[in-house]
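Quick one: structure tokens for this chain, please?
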Amino acid sequence: MKNYLLILILMSSALAYAVPQSSSPTLSTYYYYELIKIDKKMLENRNEEVEADLLDLLDDDFESRSYNHAVLLKKYAFFLITQDRTDEGLLYLKAALKKRALEAIDTHNIMYVIAQITASQGNYQEAIDYLLEWMELGNNRKFPLNPRGIALIGISYAQLENYKESLFYISDAIERSNFFVEGWYELKFALHYRMDEFQLALETSQDLVRNAPKKKKYLDQMGGMYNILKFEIESLSSLEFGLTQDLLKKEKDYLLLANFYMYKQVPFDATKTLELGFKRNIIKRTSKNLETLSNAYIGSRDKVKAADTLREASKLSDKPELSYRLGQVEMSLSRWDKAIESFKAAKTKGWKKEKGKIEYFIGISLIELEKYNEASRYLSQSADLGQEKIANPWLEYIDYLEKTSG
């Protein structure tokens, strides 16, 4: 059941019922109120009665393209999925689609759910077929397209060893996403490598290192690409000479040289290379390039410049990871107000990883600012979100301060 919780959340809007009115399509008054009764029984976990009631309703006579029938089929399908009867639920979802009576947005959502289930069952071509239709309908009707659905097309093509199509869709998903999804970049790297696109594989490995700098395997992958491309002393000397003589005119050359310095653990040289590239207006001041410069500053232990650069990067991006990382750097500098501001920005941008950590860090920063009431509120939220092991000792500390302050 846990595997399909996300599906149910995604489809929550599709489970609601329209109040009967003159516009079409809507449920008839009879089925509308019958489903309201069934929902009440579901909330009370009277599942046997729920199933019996739904089957009884489904046994009615319907026209071939009955909206009432389609909604009942969909309702029963999701009930079955919540009962870990996914195979049965899938059949009813498909039956609901075949009625061709649902609203376009419902059809769009159900296609996505069917694709998720069929892919999880190993039926990758079927998943692709549904997802391509899902994309086409979404584009035609201007419905939002979840990057995870597009990534699933890429993942499914990879399972079928259609690497060219896989690369196209996983790259599209990465471009559309506001979040760094490690697995997508890993697949993109593997695909470039498999297709002997070593320069592109190197660039992807650099993306992985930039976003997950503490993972040694990505450094090793980047090193492997440098070796395959024979980027060593001769190439380094050529680029270094071009740098000193102001002969480098391409952004990629500056970035290649800077990333190589980072790989060789000489971040000071990386910062100088990037600073020159920015000064000469060859490196664009994008969030991605500024993040690379910030990482070089961190490697050089210049945290003030790292924070200032990362702040500029975060303002140019909707990705919450940059604001979250900025908050951590600001904490290390004891700039508590700026840390709080950054963590709040990360939350506003949709940070979803490590639930409760943002509240925890804000709480710690507020303690440092001696704002204990606010700190207690954030730390309590952190504990409620699953971080009680790290939050509770600080809550106890605040209680101790309050008891001894008099």
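The chain has a mean pLDDT of 86.
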